[in-house]
């Protein structure tokens, strides 16, 4: 849009958000209260799975087996411990039979079987003191969880001569869901007060510090209501609530920090409240809008994946980003209109100052980044090649462990060691022959003779990596085989066996499921859609940054540097969570692999947050470059006026993510701590070192664009500053050396903008 039209739109927007501020805040209060009501109980409607691709062969096979052979897919396991007595002891056997009969009569339970009925060696522990009662709870995740809540207390505990523990996939998922809800509440109780303290340290004013926190709370509560509505139509992962809290607080605080800081600058420069809000929305407001779009696009890219685990983060992320931006651009200006200069009230740091010293400037109030950032940027640009090479090499080295990544599936070891369902699964995994539940199921559909079934069994038994084949179990026109692979249930050997089974010819239609088959299909689904997701992120990011800067090279630089900022996160994920380093300190169990969807999720979230900080810095550089035409000065000015702000925002977001990372569930811990590391590396290394070094090395060519694109940007792009006159630009020289607007000019601007 043209500059004139853009100014007119901003003027109308300023009038809209400041016309009736009390009414706007009252309406926001009512809507937030309704959101609290609408979003209540959202966690109870969420699922704890979603790693499987719904259109995969393994998913289809599992659904058919659940329908036709419910006893082949048990999801509820009762571990019966006879204590000192053998499970074949008459008293133990009699009590186990009673429990089995009682479980068979429960509504919603199908396919009940036990060691005492089948005498299957796989259902009896190697020491003979434990055995299993297996069953299937029918229905979806929510219904199965409700049935488990109803029946588990009646079976858990002592029954005559036996002790019973409840496990199985349903119990694992249900316990994981409960723990995540508890941990999320604890994380919020940790993050909110710490965040408030940090905001007071940044702003000085308690009033100014409360504004970003209020925006974050509105965004979180609103997103919970949105997610509650989405659960009416599709599955949503309970893990998405963690992202809602983290991004709701983190981004809302980022946006509010940027807006409140600019508003205070304008007040310090002598503008009245309404004019200060108008200037703030025209500059910082546009930056917030662009930042929200870039983050939302990064998160929206997860919509291309079929797994609802990933799609859930897109639902939550898009909602919380847009709500945070809306609150920052509508409610926050209304609040600032009412507060005016009182936004600086309740300076809690005044007690720490010497008597008689005033805090008349924002610098003394901790407002601006100060000359330290300017001197630092000059130092970096003076040795730009050294900083660029050393920083890049360091980040690449930190990312090298990711070259050894191994992908797996989430299991009970995500839970803390004391969780009942994990204890049951570990007993079964370590103490039972054949690792029940770790095998593969081959479904055979179509008419066949007993000889054909037998011949096929012989062929699959002869495949490399097969330890044992049970079956076929027939019903109607279909049958299934249990195939136990050698080695780990989801190891490379088991994955290779899945491919061999699928390639084995048969006189009927065959399909394969099981833990290894789900992993193979999940990896294939992600590999198939990943180029689309990355392409969407890159293309839209390039377009948005071009619209902001008018440069062809800056968007390319932003994408490359943002990707580079993620290397430390990916390297740390493998070194810590896959290889098990620091597992004792962080209290988790390493499984030797990384859940397949986690790197995709972490990339999308961390890339979006990196772009968030990148847009903040680039917008201020662009604003100053438009005003002066001085490239190097603009870089110094941008880092000087946003370096401290970006660092403060990154530290606050990292605090929120670390609070999320205190979760007892390993995947949540990995998500929180990994993104906290990525955010800090981006703000403190990439924005502080790489960006100024690279922009210095590129010089004024940084702003180059071909004539057609320059014309496109002049018509449709956004510009926050007033462009310098052509003669002023030409006087700067190709290297961007400072002229009259050098250090002296900077000092003059300090008196106006109070930015130091």
Short key terms for the protein model shown above:
756 residues; alpha+beta; five-stranded antiparallel beta sheet; four-stranded antiparallel beta sheet; 26 helices; 11 strands; 8% strand; elongated; disordered N terminus
Strand content: 5-15%
> Average pLDDT across residues?
84
Which class best fits the helix and strand makeup?
A: alpha+beta
Distance from N terminus to C terminus (CA atoms, Å) equals: 33 Å
Number of strands: 11
Nearest-angstrom radius of gyration?
A: 30 Å
Contiguous low-pLDDT stretches (5 residues minimum) are 1-10, 354-369, 720-756
CA-based shape: elongated
The largest pleated sheet is described as: 5 strands, antiparallel
> How do the strands of the widest beta sheet line up side by side?
2-3-1-5-4
Explain this structure to me?
Helices cover 64% and strands 8% of the residues. The longest helix has 35 residues. With 756 residues, it is α+β, with helices and mostly antiparallel strands. The protein has a 5-stranded antiparallel beta sheet with strand order 2-3-1-5-4, with helices on both faces. It has 26 helices and 11 strands. β4 and β5 form a beta hairpin. α7 packs across α22. It is elongated.
Detail the topology: elements first, then pairings.
Blueprint: H1 3-19, H2 21-39, H3 57-68, E1 76-81, H4 90-104, E2 109-114, H5 115-118, E3 130-137, H6 141-155, E4 157-159, E5 162-167, H7 169-203, H8 206-230, H9 240-268, H10 273-300, H11 308-339, H12 370-382, H13 384-399, E6 407-408, H14 420-431, E7 440-445, H15 450-461, E8 466-475, E9 478-485, H16 492-503, E10 509-514, H17 515-549, H18 553-565, H19 567-578, H20 583-586, E11 594-595, H21 598-628, H22 631-660, H23 666-698, H24 707-716, H25 726-732, H26 743-753
Parallel strand pairs: 6-11
Antiparallel strand pairs: 1-3, 1-5, 2-3, 4-5, 7-9, 7-10, 8-9
Helix pairs in contact: 1-10, 1-11, 2-8, 2-11, 6-7, 7-8, 7-9, 7-22, 8-9, 8-11, 9-10, 9-11, 9-22, 10-11, 10-17, 10-21, 12-22, 12-23, 13-19, 13-23, 16-17, 17-18, 17-21, 18-21, 18-23, 19-23, 21-22, 21-23, 22-23
């Amino acid at each position: 849009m043209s500059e004139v039209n853009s100014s007119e739109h901003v003027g109308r927007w300023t009038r809209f958000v400041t016309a009736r501020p009390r009414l706007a805040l009252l309406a926001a209060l009512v809507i937030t209260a309704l959101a609290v009501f609408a979003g209540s109980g959202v966690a109870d409607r969420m699922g704890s799975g979603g790693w499987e691709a719904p259109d995969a062969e393994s998913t289809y096979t599992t659904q058919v087996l659940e329908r036709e052979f419910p006893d082949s897919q048990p999801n509820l396991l009762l571990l019966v411990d006879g204590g000192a007595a053998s499970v074949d002891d008459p008293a133990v056997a009699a009590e186990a039979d009673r429990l089995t009969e009682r479980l068979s009569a429960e509504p919603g339970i199908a396919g009940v079987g036990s060691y005492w009925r089948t005498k299957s060696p796989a259902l009896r522990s190697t020491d003979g003191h434990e055995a299993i009662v297996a069953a299937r709870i029918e229905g979806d995740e929510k219904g199965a969880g409700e049935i488990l809540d109803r029946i588990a207390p009646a079976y858990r505990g002592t029954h005559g001569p036996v002790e019973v523990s409840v496990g199985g996939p349903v119990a694992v998922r249900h316990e994981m869901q409960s723990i995540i809800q508890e941990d999320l509440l604890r994380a919020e109780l940790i993050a909110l007060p710490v965040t408030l303290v940090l905001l007071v340290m940044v702003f000085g004013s308690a009033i100014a510090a409360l504004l970003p926190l209020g925006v974050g709370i509105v965004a979180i509560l609103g997103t919970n209501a949105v997610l509650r509505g989405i659960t009416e139509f599709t599955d949503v992962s309970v893990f998405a609530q963690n992202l809602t809290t983290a991004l709701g607080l983190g981004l809302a605080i980022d946006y509010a920090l940027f807006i409140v800081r600019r508003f205070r600058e304008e007040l310090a420069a002598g503008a009245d409240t309404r004019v200060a809000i108008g200037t703030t929305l025209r500059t910082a407001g546009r930056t917030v809008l662009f930042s929200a779009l870039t983050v939302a696009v990064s998160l929206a890219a997860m919509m291309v994946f079929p797994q609802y685990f990933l799609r859930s983060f897109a639902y939550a992320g898009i909602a919380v980003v847009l709500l945070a931006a809306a609150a920052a651009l509508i409610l926050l200006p209304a609040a600032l209109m009412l507060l005016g200069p009182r936004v600086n009230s309740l300076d809690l740091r005044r007690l720490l100052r010497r008597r008689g010293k005033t805090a008349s400037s924002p610098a003394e109030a901790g407002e601006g980044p100060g000359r330290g950032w300017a001197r630092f940027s000059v130092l970096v640009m003076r040795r730009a090649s050294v900083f660029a090479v050393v920083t890049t090499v360091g980040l690449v080295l930190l990312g090298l462990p990711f070259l050894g990544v191994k992908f797996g599936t989430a299991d009970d070891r995500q839970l803390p060691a004391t969780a009942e369902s994990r204890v049951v699964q570990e007993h079964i995994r370590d103490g039972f022959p054949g690792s029940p539940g770790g095998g593969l199921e081959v479904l055979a559909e179509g008419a066949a003779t007993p000889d054909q079934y037998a011949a096929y069994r012989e062929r699959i038994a002869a495949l490399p990596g097969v330890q044992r084949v049970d079956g076929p179990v027939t019903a109607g026109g279909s049958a299934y085989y249990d195939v136990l692979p050698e080695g780990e249930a989801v190891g490379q050997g088991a994955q290779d066996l899945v491919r061999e089974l699928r390639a084995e010819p048969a006189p009927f239609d065959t399909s394969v499921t099981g833990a290894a088959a789900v992993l193979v299909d999940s990896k294939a689904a992600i590999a198939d859609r990943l180029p689309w997701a990355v392409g969407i992120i890159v293309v839209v990011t390039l377009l948005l940054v071009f619209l902001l800067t008018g440069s062809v090279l800056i968007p390319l630089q932003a994408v490359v540097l943002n990707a580079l900022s993620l290397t430390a996160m990916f390297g740390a994920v493998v070194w810590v969570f896959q290889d098990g380093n620091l597992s004792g300190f962080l209290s988790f169990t390493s499984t030797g692999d990384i859940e397949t969807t986690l790197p995709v999720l972490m990339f999308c979230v961390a890339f979006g947050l990196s772009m968030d900080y990148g847009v903040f810095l680039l917008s201020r550089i662009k604003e100053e470059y438009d005003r002066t035409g001085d490239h190097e000065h603009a870089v110094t000015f941008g880092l000087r006026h946003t370096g401290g702000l970006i660092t403060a925002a990154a530290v606050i977001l990292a605090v929120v993510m670390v609070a999320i990372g205190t979760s007892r569930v390993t995947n949540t811990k990995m998500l929180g701590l990994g993104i906290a590391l990525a955010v800090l590396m981006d703000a403190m290394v990439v924005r502080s070192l790489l960006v100024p070094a690279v922009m210095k090395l590129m010089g004024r060519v940084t702003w180059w664009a071909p004539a057609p694109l320059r014309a496109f940007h002049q018509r449709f792009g956004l510009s926050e500053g007033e462009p310098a006159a052509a003669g002023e630009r030409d006087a700067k020289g190709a290297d961007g050396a400072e002229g009259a607007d050098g250090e002296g000019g900077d000092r003059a601007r300090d008196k106006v903008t109070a930015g130091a």
